[in-house]
Amino acid sequence: MSSETIELSGHIIDSWTLPSAWDVIMDRGGYFTVDELRIGVHKTETSYIRLKIEAPDDNTLDLILTELQQFGAALVNGDDAQTAAVEQPGVLPPSFYSTTNLPTQVRVQGQWVQVENIEMDVVIVIDTEQRRAFCKPMHEVQIGERVVTGHGGIRVQPFERARERESFAFMQSSVSTEKVKVLAIHEIARQMRETRERGGKILFVLGPAVIHTGAGRYVADLILRGYVHVIFGGNAIITHDVESALFGTSLGVNLRSGEQVEGGHRNHLRAINAIRAVGSIEKAVELGLLKEGITYEMQKRGLRMVLAGSIRDDGPMPGVISDMQEAQKQMRAALPGVEMTVMVASMLHAIATGNVLPATVRTVVVDINPSVVTKLADRGSFQAAGLITDAELFLRELAEALSD
Amino acid sequence: MSSETIELSGHIIDSWTLPSAWDVIMDRGGYFTVDELRIGVHKTETSYIRLKIEAPDDNTLDLILTELQQFGAALVNGDDAQTAAVEQPGVLPPSFYSTTNLPTQVRVQGQWVQVENIEMDVVIVIDTEQRRAFCKPMHEVQIGERVVTGHGGIRVQPFERARERESFAFMQSSVSTEKVKVLAIHEIARQMRETRERGGKILFVLGPAVIHTGAGRYVADLILRGYVHVIFGGNAIITHDVESALFGTSLGVNLRSGEQVEGGHRNHLRAINAIRAVGSIEKAVELGLLKEGITYEMQKRGLRMVLAGSIRDDGPMPGVISDMQEAQKQMRAALPGVEMTVMVASMLHAIATGNVLPATVRTVVVDINPSVVTKLADRGSFQAAGLITDAELFLRELAEALSD
Amino acid sequence: MSSETIELSGHIIDSWTLPSAWDVIMDRGGYFTVDELRIGVHKTETSYIRLKIEAPDDNTLDLILTELQQFGAALVNGDDAQTAAVEQPGVLPPSFYSTTNLPTQVRVQGQWVQVENIEMDVVIVIDTEQRRAFCKPMHEVQIGERVVTGHGGIRVQPFERARERESFAFMQSSVSTEKVKVLAIHEIARQMRETRERGGKILFVLGPAVIHTGAGRYVADLILRGYVHVIFGGNAIITHDVESALFGTSLGVNLRSGEQVEGGHRNHLRAINAIRAVGSIEKAVELGLLKEGITYEMQKRGLRMVLAGSIRDDGPMPGVISDMQEAQKQMRAALPGVEMTVMVASMLHAIATGNVLPATVRTVVVDINPSVVTKLADRGSFQAAGLITDAELFLRELAEALSD
Amino acid sequence: MSSETIELSGHIIDSWTLPSAWDVIMDRGGYFTVDELRIGVHKTETSYIRLKIEAPDDNTLDLILTELQQFGAALVNGDDAQTAAVEQPGVLPPSFYSTTNLPTQVRVQGQWVQVENIEMDVVIVIDTEQRRAFCKPMHEVQIGERVVTGHGGIRVQPFERARERESFAFMQSSVSTEKVKVLAIHEIARQMRETRERGGKILFVLGPAVIHTGAGRYVADLILRGYVHVIFGGNAIITHDVESALFGTSLGVNLRSGEQVEGGHRNHLRAINAIRAVGSIEKAVELGLLKEGITYEMQKRGLRMVLAGSIRDDGPMPGVISDMQEAQKQMRAALPGVEMTVMVASMLHAIATGNVLPATVRTVVVDINPSVVTKLADRGSFQAAGLITDAELFLRELAEALSD
Description:
The structure is a homotetramer.
Chain A: E1 2-10, H1 17-27, E2 31-38, E3 47-55, H2 58-69, E4 74-75, E5 82-85, E6 104-108, E7 111-116, E8 123-127, E9 132-136, E10 146-149, E11 154-156, H3 169-172, H4 181-197, E12 201-206, H5 209-212, H6 216-224, E13 230-233, H7 235-247, E14 249-250, E15 253-254, H8 266-278, H9 281-286, H10 294-300, E16 304-307, H11 324-334, E17 338-344, H12 348-356, E18 362-367, H13 370-378, E19 384-388, H14 391-401
């Protein structure tokens, strides 16, 4: 029998941390004894438990400890985080520790150091001299960098469900379509207001259906009122937005009358071509060619759109990034300060954003297709609250809720 | 080789009748020769074609003629419709003609007679003396009644796509979610206004999600403004509506705050129990127990709700019809005068209504789940225009569009 | 401040009962103190907790106690269950206790009595003389019967997740389509084998798509091999099954070639008419008219099909029950002995069956549409494990897995 | 009034070309007179029509002629295709002609020349000297190249529905889930056999769910039997395939037991890291590190996988193309010889492949989510036949159907 003693503290009762931990231990074939348990009985009090874990062998104990880490467990007799040096550029040492998107600390020379720019499925590089720890994606690690390995000396701060009336709670329980959505939308509006007031940035991740359904005008309105600080999207959203601004159509459908005015994609190609002819979006705004829409409003305010290309793109529109590593880099660079994310009608970019977003950023995913929400959660963005509804009517209602 | 000559006339070009007819002939293994073709070149002109059809055998020719009937083909040398007498109650003669939901005429003693109360998948009974023809469901046919058999002497008027700007056309093409829905909703509102102005009745078919999502208030508002004349639904819609009126909840969720205030279904049972205790909805309104909601507004105006029970019901609520034959009978009885139907968030009742509705009634199906629209079309209600959107936000927008 | 002391015991740690209970107390605005806690550290040991609950007022305390009951909490100083007499037939006393589908006991004269035929959303009637307690739906309560009210003296046995490798666990976590389904199907097969071996009955709930997709043959095969003991369904499943047996088609589509051989629903009406002409399914089998298919195989073995009509039915087929109260009664009557339920491609009948099924019956819901599983769970059948897959290919694989 | 005379010939009756053409003329506000009509009455005969089209103005006439082109209409008095020179690299002349994915000819010096490598939404560049015409995406056009403009001198060969029993027809009608899929799968198998026998290549487009659901083994089996010649996919499919080959898991789920063996994505990162460490897939196979799976089987046979990166990728795996223009180029380069495409569980890569695929390539899209098929059709890949079913069970059945 192998054994180890761990501690858990914080809102471990009401955040379901403690039962989840017990579950893991038993699911993996271990046993536990409660050495000490103090339950905080008032809202503001935290709880504490010290557990002795036993497992039939070292491997099992290891697996259990790895998983408990995600709940914030720390070894009572902990050492520094172990590291190994990178020996080939872009190749990790074999026993690398793979991050979650939860706030994480590593013990460096006896002290807990916060990992900077936390995101999921990357590694932690430690700079011992500066006592700093950073996240790095695999392809960016350099020879000689010290990558954290194993699971000792790592502490993850679990997702704590606030005890106060959890604003998003009613959306989180399931992906049911049978809920009062107007309430949810007004709650989202309230949180956007709060976020803006305290100086936090709001990131919108947008799919092209936003434009096809004529909802671009509501997003433009939100930008104008200061509720959008960064946009992530792709070639389609910008192209249809520009098509709509230049020709009043999206995929050839007139957005005012709903009628098909052009066969298929010609206007969409014309829109790209028009911007390519002047060289850039900046130039098109400057020349007075582009006079409305999401892209125009963002450009006019100097706000950032990170537009990542994809394999299905026509064009592409100037400003769309063709190289995926570069695009991810720019997405990461745009995240500091973002405290809330609203993802609308975009599966690809929603998942991509989920990959680089810390779990602490409030995230709402709006889609008419429940599978988008399911997929996002399947891929680790458990903090995302899903709202299964119509993108167009959602944005219309949101813009209205924020119009005064 | 068997052969027969048929005629087709009307808007057979722009309603795709002619190509559909050609298709059927060739798909079934027949050949055709165009004896005469006159194409109407202006909007108001109709076209005419006389086709000689050849088929390898009588069976094939029969199959072809049966299908062509649905496009309005009539034999050039036609006889009266054939009939056979019912010999057992509720049992049809073997070669009975099964109707479509398109306007249909039968030849009785040399004259074309309109079939009354046309609906799909029933039979035509002819009263030769009175020169009348009616639809009857199988289980209602009586011994001695004369049921139309074969396919001679029957003329179906095909669904003619209006040449003018087809208001619902943009919804009909497919079940895509990527369309401008606000436009579609305003078009529906316009048609509701027109229907009401010319004295036509509007039928709403409602599923319980209308109440769960808090959208009952918008329907109540539409009733109040005179845009709802008949409602079809089930036990769930009335029960949740009454629950909402009495306790402010739906399935125990407070519709103002979105919070669960009661475990599961208790309020829903309490609502049924409260009405059962006073005996009926009428009495509950009279006693001042029921003071708001869809049911209240309908009752107050003497408007009809046909509520058909289902196997999943609790209760049931007084007024809900437990016997399915009786419920279908009452649905049929409520149809005269109905010129438009709006189906929201209801698969079961939408399909049931589709079954008894003539194809000439404008029908809109609104659901967040595309499969509802697909299923309705699969089951023969091809005239239904689908709008894949959120029921709650749809009704909110519709009520707003009709509020002035 | 109001307060009360409760006890919880059993697998309250690994079944998440304890954390759920804590959650409820805090969510509802109460506080708790742990008076005693004993944690079972081995698989076979149970745990025990005694909690003192405090709430700001009596109403809140009441609400908390009601909810805790569902987790199996019992008042330390408990009394007998309270009852009130029924005063109008089919009308409950105002403070009636509404059941869950979990095993439930009521205290009658100081003794805990198991409630018979437990199902959700009905009431408990106590026969004090006989010391028995039964479930009854609202519309069946009679004058003078004593219905349980309030929440004292009621004990619910929570759903305990077995600690052994939970066979269905991998299906339960979410409704993801991205799982290895062949494994799940073979696990279902294994459980069906076990159920049959120990003499338990297996109930199949079937929607018409089973026949449309040509999968009727696999179900017939399962009946033949003794894996189906009861079938619940509607008019559509039996009608299409008979249509398929008589004409080789379903909705006019030839099930061997996939070709449309008849316009729309005529064969379907012919099938109903043929059985109506001879009077019943029994007679049709006896006369050699019906010689294959699900209905035939069930009839030949004297097995029960409870076929509940619905508002969308044609016909109906003899044997289909038109009255919904009667149909529910027959469904309830067919349940004793059922230990496993497989629901395939049926939303209406799946929900209806969920309503009358105890939570202790293993339930699998198979549908290509994730919303069916979501809806079933939303309506209280939390024990149902969902498998999002193709009904036809599921049944083919299941029949193959059980073929040896 | 403006007018023009056009000709249409071929299977214009049974391919619905003629009625579609009439529809366009009338929908756009034009009129027509039939100058000559010859209808082919036997299967092998083609038809011919000469129509005089009138429109209220030149713009309308233009719009009509543009759309009729897609149906194969040619001006009776046609001239050569017009061209304009490219003046900026990657920027088109304003009135560029945007292609469809149908076989297209342009008139060059009085002769009809076939456009090479036809695909949708690109332009046609004419090399007058060589009398050749090519497709080019916008970003590849060079200064001085002559791009086709306007709509004169262009002839599109419409999609002709074969009169013989159309093998895919039963899948094409709609995206219903209620069809006999085993039949469809065997039909697809038959066509794959035929394609292979006549030396045509078969392209598979695969999403990661193919691996998550454990269906990778069936694809490996199809490769082994010679039914897969090219694969298009992304980082996820190759990574999960390698993860599955190296560790037996996909996203940490053991594909044999269905159990989660590793928290989240670690094995997936380990798989990428392992290949990065040796440098390439080729090397990994050579060293005996990679010994099974899709990637291994393809590599061993020297078959091509074009793996296009995307913004949501980890890693990436060596061999995945990060630059989107480069990836599209390689997809195009892999297409010659491809006569059939099977797309499974991939929305992004399915749409991307649809973009570069001529309409003449038989295409099947298999997905459990109907919206994938709808989206593909919405984006112009109308030739794709959709099969709404489970990817895993589809591939299992397909592999079995092709196993002898």
